Amino acid sequence: MRVYIRTYGCKVNQVESEELAARLVAEGHELVRDEDQAQLYAVNSCTVTGEADAKVRKGVRHAALLPNVEQVLVTGCAAVMHADQLRELSEKVVIADRETGNVPPALGSVFHTRVPVKVQDGCENFCNYCIVPYARGASRSAPMSELVSRVAALAAKGTQEIVLTGINIGRYHDLETGANLAALIRALHEQGGIHRIRLSSIEPPDVTDELCALLAEGVLCEHLHIPLQSGSDEVLKAMGRHYTAAEFTAAIKRVRAAAPQAAIATDVIVGYPAETDADFEATYNFCQASAFSKIHVFRFSPRVGTPAATLPPLDPQMVAARAARLRELSTELAASYAQSQRGRTLEWVVERLDPLTDQATLTSREHLSMRISAADHVQGELLSLPFDMMKSVRGDFPETSIPSLSEA
Ligand code: SF4
Question: For 290-300, what is each residue's pLDDT tens digit?
Fold first, then answer.
């Protein structure tokens, strides 16, 4: 069968789509890039906001109407939470069984400079606004021995960078050895061959001294994504987050003590039902003082089945205005971080080459990107070059937290 795969949502879904692709290819199916050619249309869904649900439903309806499509396979979080509603969209819809968390082989035929590696799934934090623990279940980890073998195979194929992904990777726990995330990273580093190890997202309480030591040693890329969600202790408490603003500050101080030039990105939810003007100002000031390299701004979206969904919502216009202010701040902070790196010689990897423009896109350990002439460069090549703001690429390589919300 000819198969087209469409992915919504977070990096975990991207990894799972690659795994699905690998399984389908192994079973003799053919992947196509043109959806009009597809007989089987797979939708790997996301349900983290109402907007995400709407996009998935639209995507499923669209797929079912394509002339060659015989089946629309829906997998991912929306398939778990809204199977019946999705089935009602078309008789072509088939809902996939939830995966068990095994880590099947990656798609072998495509060379990627940077490869996401799923090390963990599920979450037991039950933050009051989040549907993910209900959709993905309890935390479970891939065996460290399997991950080491897999990463060794990627290194042998020339992969320069891996991004460790999961829903809550700080909860990584290898059942056989008891290894935690830091021990896993060390093991992956020590097997050799992979030049860079990056984390997708890490919860504030999991920014441990052990992890910071890995940053200081250059084992981990100097780029962390630590979701703040709010700078107000009252809102953090209402959200059911397990840290205070002061503890978050202590975590980023530890990071900067270990790696002073590190880029620290974050997520903020604006318009949580408990958020007052003063709470929002506290968040704004906190973000400014923290000098994040990027703020992913999300408007609160009630998810049926979560405690926060029962609370009265705030005025949408006020929430939109707060989101706009924070986005503006994000733009300023991103520019300021980039400015601070200007002229510094950074390590770059050639991420991709564009034959049409003859440009090479480079990514630094700090997650900056810039374009240079492609002349004589090859994908995956490592370069040492000063960061040139004139050549910087903004808005490229969007990072999304786990779970990924639709940004405001
Ligand atoms: S927001 Fe993150 S930590 Fe909280 S319940 Fe959802 S997945 Fe878990």
Answer: 999 999 999 99
Q: Rounded distance, CA 79 to CA 85, Å?
A: 9
Spell out the domain ranges in the chain.
2-95, 114-340, 342-391
Q: 402 C-alpha vs ligand 1 centroid, how far in Å? A: 8
With the most atoms of ligand 1 within 8 angstroms of its CB, the residue from 132, 171, 242, 404 to mutate is 132
pLDDT of residue 12: 81
Fold: same for 2-95 and 114-340: no
Cα distance between residue 381 and residue 371, in whole Å = 14
Report the Cα–Cα distance between both ends of the chain, in Å, rounded: 38
Within 13 A of 153's CA, how many CA atoms are on the CB side?
Answer: 12
Query: pTM of the entire structure?
Result: 0.81
What topology is assigned to 2-95 in CATH?
Rossmann fold (3.40.50)
| Superfamily the domain 114-340 falls into | tm_1862 like domain (3.80.30.20)
Task: Give the DSSP letter of residue 122.
Answer: -
Closest ligand 1 atom number to CA of residue 203: 3
Our mutation pick for probing the ligand 1 site, out of 130, 230, 301, counting the most ligand atoms within 8 A of Cβ, is: 130
